[in-house]
Amino acid sequence: GFFPLRSENAKSHSHKDLKEFYHIYHWGRYPKEISSKSKILFGKLVSFASELLSWVDSNINKDVANKLSIPLMDMIDGSESNLMRIIHYPPLIGTDHNKEVRAAAHEDINLLTLLCGSNEPGLQALDNDGKWHDIIAKPNTISVNSGDMLNMCTEGFFPSTTHRVVNPDITNMKKNVSRFSIPVFLHPRHDVMLKKGYTAGQYLNDRLNEIGLKKTTKV
């Protein structure tokens, strides 16, 4: 369903992000006024993300594989939590708080995130030296982020990708325009053990509470 402006804050950030978004699950409600193109894109991106995860399974060393409760591909088998988020970042206005940003620095909750190229710049990723890099928005490109669940179940072998969306120049009307983004989040089943005594469903609920979104899973 739809989440209005200032619904979500990044973990450990008190100010809400300047974005609104719509969540699509393969089992959820879908607006009848909208064509099926979004659902088709969702399915194709989940299939591609699953293929990428299978490559990880095939290429990680034995020590890392032995840390997993089950292989990564088995974690997503039958998952009901894969999610497409359609995000709108509206133009900034003078009444926005000076500490509010489109998306504060954060890491994604899930295993892998696939992100289609946006219509406007603003996305940045943090490297190991603490330097931010612009992720250039090009047509027909997909960015891939590793998430906190992959980081947790591999005990840090695949670190989470820290990223953010910075604000446009509010004094420049040509740059202060709407930005649209469509990430797809690949999730394990709720019952999968990320580490001893801690399931993916429990972790998801904990994180949803931290970022200001209500619980949506049964654990």
Descriptive overview:
With 219 residues, the protein is of the alpha+beta class. The protein is built from 5 helices and 13 strands. Strands 1, 2, 3, 5, 8, 10 and 11 form a 7-stranded antiparallel sheet that branches. A 4-stranded antiparallel sheet has the order 4-9-6-7, with no helix packed on it. 22% of the residues lie in helices and 23% in strands. The longest helix has 23 residues, at 37-59.
Largest sheet: 7 strands, antiparallel
Range of helix content: 10-25%
Q: Low-confidence spans: pLDDT under 50, at least 5 residues?
A: none
What's the rounded overall pLDDT mean?
92
Give the helix tally: 5
Please supply descriptive tags for the structure shown above.
four-stranded antiparallel beta sheet, 219 residues, alpha+beta, 22% helix
Give the SSE map.
Elements: E1 2-3, E2 20-24, H1 37-59, H2 62-65, H3 72-75, E3 83-89, E4 103-106, E5 112-116, E6 123-126, E7 132-134, E8 142-146, H4 148-153, E9 163-165, E10 179-181, E11 183-186, E12 193-195, E13 198-199, H5 200-210
Summarize the structure.
With 219 residues, the protein is α+β, with helices and mostly antiparallel strands.
